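=== RUN LOG ===
request id: a7f3
mode: sequence -> structure
chains: 1
length: 406
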Amino acid sequence: MENEICRVWDMSMDEDVALFLQEFNAPDIFMGVLAKSKCPRLREICVGILGNMACFQEICVSISSDKNLGQVLLYCLCDSDPPTLLETSRLLLTCLSQTEVAIVWVERIREHPAIYDSICFIMSSSTNVDLLVKVGEVVDKLFDLDEKLILEWIRNGAVQPLDQPQEDSEQQPVFRIVPCVLEAAKQVRSENPEGLDVYMHILQLLTTVDDGIQAIVQCPDTGKDTWNLLFDLVCHEFCQSDDPPIILQEQKTVLASVFSVLSAIYASQAEQEYLKTGKVDLPLIDSLIRVLQNMKHCQKKPENSAESNAEETKKSDLTQDDFHLKILKDISCEFLSNIFQVLTKETVAQGLKEGQLSKQKCSCAFENLLPLYNPVVEDFLKILREVDKTFAGNLEESFPSLKVQT
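=== RESULT ===
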């Protein structure tokens, strides 16, 4: 029987087969199986078939409009079987990606706050990377669709899971969204770069609301853990000096998210021990400037293709690449300007000595910061003149608009 139903699972990727299953009320049959069966493999297959069927708009609308089926599928997020959880997450992501029905699922999830606990439990305890990535994509999509849900999940404490009785409430852990996201990010970090990108974007979405920034920084341990992970990524893993410049194309979205979150923490928690001037400023300056230097190579136009279709594709891809690179550049420049504003003479002197503030790097920084951050650059030059007048003078020669008026 398993072999036969797996064959149906494979076939359900075909739209005609999916419509045939829909015509014979397969979703109702699967709903009955999911509500009654205790066989994990059978539950996984049923949800998997529904997931394939939901890839087609007409069927997705029909599945999403069935309140009872929607309820049963949300209960599947409380399942203890990782393959079933994976297929359920895939189905939810498919539905959330359909404009016509996305809001139906968002509202459904908001009506069941216990879904928060189930998802947090998966993120904080699972070692199944495929599952973590898919659950992360669901959370990322939910946050992208509904800011109110972000606020609700940030403020959420311990709530009753769907399958737990009220009297067991004292045994339930208090899940906080940020530590759960961090734990999942650490788990997927080495095995799935795309998954890490997803979790970094979740953190970035959290920082788009004040409560989200507070959720990261209000607990010293959480703030420090978040900072340490992201700081390690940009200073020791992404866009390193021995990487080819073109690597930036692969890392542009995750770098934009990481720098955005680091910048938010830096701006709100400057007094924290792990952020004190000098200990993190120079490594971050080095990383930010290296990203800006590599950006020039990524923005060069490719050679014209002989075939017009290929040429159009390249132009389209280039436009999209330029869009994401511009976002990364804007975030990097803003973060760099914030760091420049708090630099001390001692830190600048150390940067000159160790090479993070060489003429080439300072020139790159100025090229990108001017004219938008002109006051910041001028203040930095004042400190630079006090530390090394000759060095400052050489920089001014390259940027006449910054020369001291006599």
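=== NOTES ===
DSSP finds 22 helices and no strands in the chain.
The CA atoms of residues 205 and 358 lie 35 Å apart.
=== END ===
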